[in-house]
Amino acid sequence: MAGKFEVYEDRAGKFRFRLKASNGQVVASGEAYESRSAAHKGCESVQKAADGAKVEEVAS
C-alpha cells in the first residue's frame, strides 16, 4: 500500500495535512490553512515538488 495524505481540522479551526507512510507513521506535515480546499492544494503542491526531487546533503 502506498502512503497517503490526510487533511484534517486542527483545534484552532485551521486545516492541515499530514503525509503518512504505508506503515501509518507521519513522515511530513503541512502548515495551517484557512480552508479545506487550500489544504488540498498544499498536498498537490508537495506531490508536484517531490516528483523527481533530488536529495541533497547540507552542512549543519
TrEMBL record:
Coiled-coil parts of chain: none
InterPro entries: DUF1508, UPF0339_domain, YegP-like_sf
Pfam families for this protein: DUF1508
Domain DUF1508 positions: 10-57
Signal peptide: none
PANTHER family: PTHR40606, UPF0339 PROTEIN YEGP (PTHR40606:SF1)
Name under which the protein is recorded: Uncharacterized protein YegP (UPF0339 family)
